[in-house]
Amino acid sequence: YMRLLFNDKAGANADGTRKFKGLAWLFMGMPFSKSLLYDDEHSEYKAKYPDQFRYDYAVSREQKNAAGQKMYIQTKMAEYTEDLWQLMQKPNTHIFMCGLKGMESG
Fold first, then answer.
1. Dihedral sign (CA 8, 14, 15, 19)
2. What does the pLDDT read at residue 99?
3. Per DSSP, what are the bridge partners of residue 95?
4. Mean pLDDT of the residues in the chain
5. Which neighbouring-strand residues pair with 12?
6. According to the model, what pLDDT value does residue 20 have?
7. Nearest-10 Cα torsion for 82, 68, 57, 84
8. Residue 53 in 3-state DSSP?
9. What is the rounded CA–CA span in Å between residue 50 and residue 94?
10. Which of 19, 23, 27, 70 has the most CB atoms at less than 10 Å from its CB?
């Protein structure tokens, strides 16, 4: 879906501008940073569309939350509670939570 919003021709207007006018925020979890997928694409979207794309990673075996526990997606999201709540009130906000299959429950 990120590719549709920020890369594919189907997501572009005839003049080349993007059809999507909101904010997409991705929260992605993985056990190790070496398992990180699509980081080059996420970096590109952030560079090209800084007001429309945000991303945060939760790397459970390498990062710790404020309580010193493993960092999971829900913990990472909790760091942005106020921002997320305000954004969820807007119809053009898309928030994505993704993790790798087989990760332990958090």
1. negative
2. 84
3. 25
4. 92
5. 18
6. 94
7. -10
8. strand
9. 15
10. 27
